[in-house]
Amino acid sequence: MGATDAFFYIAILIMSVVIHEVSHGFVALYFGDQTAKYVGRLTLNPLKHLDLFGSVILPLLLYISAGFAFGWARPVPYNPDNLRNKKWGTFFVASAGVLANLLIAVIFGLIMRFSPAFSPPESFYFIVSTIVIINIALAVFNLVPIPPLDGSKILFTLLPASFNSFTAFLEQYSLILLIAFIFFFSGILFPVLSFLFSFITGFSL
What we know:
Elements lengths: L2 H28 L4 H4 L13 H15 L19 H29 L7 H21 L7 H9 L5 H9 L1 H12 L4 H12 L4
Helix pairs in contact: 1-3, 1-4, 1-5, 4-5, 4-6, 5-9
């Protein structure tokens, strides 16, 4: 893998996680919470969102060593107590990042699906397919219902109060559960990623 490929991969990953986080902030603003606005996080300027380790160092090391990369940006802050509807506001704020990544994947996936008619260069397919893959991966991974991933917030808003002890357990042991999932169970996400990529683009992963 060349340095140019690595540069594009990391750049796409950074912008994808930035859009993911900014989407949380804008939906929180829509529901009445201005925290992200007050701290200057409603911007696509990546410098406002980058986590040095999670956005740059780790993705670069993973890409060089394993040919893939994953990472994160600093979470956009919001205060659920400021939301007009705390339950559904929290649900939609949590869902916003996932939906933003899926929307990006669908837009560029459809471009890829209809691109053969225009005979684009090979570099086009690398960039567009990378955008689709990264955004599907971000969406699917963030739906895993383990804190602090978005899937846990979505799940917790839908569960009745009788599940409070279960949610407390997940929150208490979230780091251990998340590490265990990444190392031992994350492979179960690949068939989902592969299916969605093929379904959207018409190409096999």
